[in-house]
């Protein structure tokens, strides 16, 4: 058994309606080596009152204006002192109380990346269903040429290999962050265990066209232009095939 320190980083802005369930899920963990960090973007609602209410959970927090979501996440990485960083934003929750013990209780050494499955929830915290793209057991960085195959919030990365988020990308920097983390990793453990309940409606869902353009640029950077065009063609074909199949049912 290993007992690494996990820094759970939560980015907030006017999140009083959803933050409490995130902090409550952290509090319920039966793992005792957690650092909870709140990076708030100068909220004007009751967000900070909730942070103060959970002072027994929140290890450190700041509230100041930032240059967007990924700038705030980089601040979180700089404040983290844990062996691992885990991004769990306002409204996201840890699915079960034993998630971290599930990963670490049978381990004899610390892997570079741990990941698992994701459940999608609405603003009321009600489950909508599982994430459409299922993870495979032995993901490598090369698999991400087929898209975001694991939810960003269901990935724990060893802090010493965790990259900063690239401010060049406004929508898809999390895709590059996960891809680069896997590329740097030597030892990875994947599981079908449901790790995170993810609040539907992230910025990539609200800006699909821009997100796809940024993902294409990232894919071209890592995999080259021709392979990226080919795999994007395959993804479109797979999507159209699925739609046609559903219409026949």
From TrEMBL:
Q: Which GO terms describe its molecular function?
A: glycosyltransferase activity
* TM ranges: 222-241
Q: Which InterPro entries match?
A: Glyco_trans_2-like (IPR001173), Nucleotide-diphossugar_trans (IPR029044)
Instruction: Cite the Glycosyltransferase 2-like domain residue spans from the record.
Output: 7-148
Asked if Oxidoreductase is a keyword of the record, the answer is: no
EC numbers on record: 2.4.1.-
Provide this UniProt record's keywords sorted from A to Z.
Glycosyltransferase, Membrane, Transferase, Transmembrane, Transmembrane helix
Spell out the coiled coil positions from the record: none
The name under which this protein is listed is: PGL/p-HBAD biosynthesis glycosyltransferase
What organism, scientifically named, is this protein from?
Answer: bioreactor metagenome
* Lineage of origin: unclassified sequences, metagenomes, ecological metagenomes
């Amino acid at each position: 058994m290993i007992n690494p320190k996990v820094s759970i980083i939560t980015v907030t802005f006017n999140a009083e309606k959803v933050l409490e369930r995130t902090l409550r899920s952290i509090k319920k963990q039966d793992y005792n080596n957690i650092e909870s960090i709140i990076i708030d973007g100068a909220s004007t609602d009751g967000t900070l009152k909730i942070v103060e209410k959970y002072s027994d959970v929140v290890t450190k927090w700041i509230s100041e204006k930032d240059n967007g979501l990924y700038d705030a996440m980089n601040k979180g990485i700089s404040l983290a002192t844990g062996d691992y960083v885990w991004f769990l934003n306002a409204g996201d929750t840890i699915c079960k109380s034993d998630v971290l013990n599930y990963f670490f209780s049978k381990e004899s050494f610390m892997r570079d990346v741990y990941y698992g499955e994701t459940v999608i929830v609405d603003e009321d915290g009600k489950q909508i269903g599982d994430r459409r793209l299922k993870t495979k057991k032995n993901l490598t960085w090369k698999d991400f040429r087929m898209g975001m195959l694991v939810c960003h919030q269901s990935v724990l990365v060893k802090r010493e290999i965790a990259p900063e988020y690239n401010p060049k990308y406004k929508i898809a920097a999390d895709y590059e962050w996960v891809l680069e983390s896997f590329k740097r990793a030597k030892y990875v453990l994947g599981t079908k265990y449901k790790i995170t309940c993810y609040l539907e409606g992230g910025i990539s869902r609200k800006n699909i066209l821009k997100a796809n353009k940024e993902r294409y640029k990232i894919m071209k950077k890592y995999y080259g232009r021709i392979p990226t065009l080919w795999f994007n063609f395959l993804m479109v074909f797979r999507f159209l095939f699925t739609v046609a199949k559903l219409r026949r049912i």
